[in-house]
Design brief:
Pfam families: PCC (PF03479). The chain is mainly beta and 134 residues long. It has one domain: 2-Layer Sandwich (60s Ribosomal Protein L30, Chain: A), CATH 3.30.1330.80. 8% of the residues lie in helices and 60% in strands. It has one helix and nine strands, in the order E-H-E-E-E-E-E-E-E-E. The strands form two sheets. Strands 1, 2, 3, 4, 5, 6 and 7 form a seven-stranded antiparallel sheet that branches. It has a two-stranded antiparallel ribbon with strand order 8-9. Strand 4 (62-72) and strand 5 (75-83) form a beta hairpin. The chain is globular and about 45 Å long.
Length: 134
């Protein structure tokens, strides 16, 4: 039995990164996936940086160098690295509001044999990934 399926995805100008990826996973009939790869460009960047209380908000052209993470039925956890016009690299947790500039090419691994969810973890104080058989 196959435990995963690959789903290539191309996002278009103006698409919001996180909701578009989540929608593609749910439209496939699955509630569990990992983002294996992602490249493209953004014109609006919203990141939560390590340990920061506020979001980094930048409206400028960025190249998406990498994207990875997990999509669960009740939320996603995505990390991204991007470079700006000067070649400076930024990275962090993808917050709502990241917008595709020209394209985003994403490869998803769908996990039909699994259920992913985010549940409170007393050790970290955050909702963390829980993996269960479907």
């Amino acid at each position: 039995m196959t435990t995963h399926l690959l789903l290539p995805l191309r996002l278009r100008p103006g698409d919001e990164l996180r909701p578009a990826i989540e929608a593609a996973v749910y439209a496939s009939g699955h509630g569990a996936a990992f983002v294996v790869s992602g490249i493209g460009s953004l014109d609006r960047l919203r990141l939560r940086l390590a340990g920061a209380e506020t979001l980094l908000n930048r409206d400028a052209d960025f190249e998406m160098l990498s994207l990875a993470g997990s999509i669960a039925a009740n939320g996603s956890h995505l990390h991204i690295s991007v470079s700006d016009a000067a070649g400076q690299v930024l990275g962090g947790h993808v917050a709502p509001g990241c917008r595709v500039r020209t394209t985003a090419e994403i490869l998803l691994a769908l996990l039909p044999g699994h259920q992913l969810s985010r549940e409170p973890d007393p050790a970290t104080g955050y909702a963390e990934l829980m993996i269960r058989p479907a």
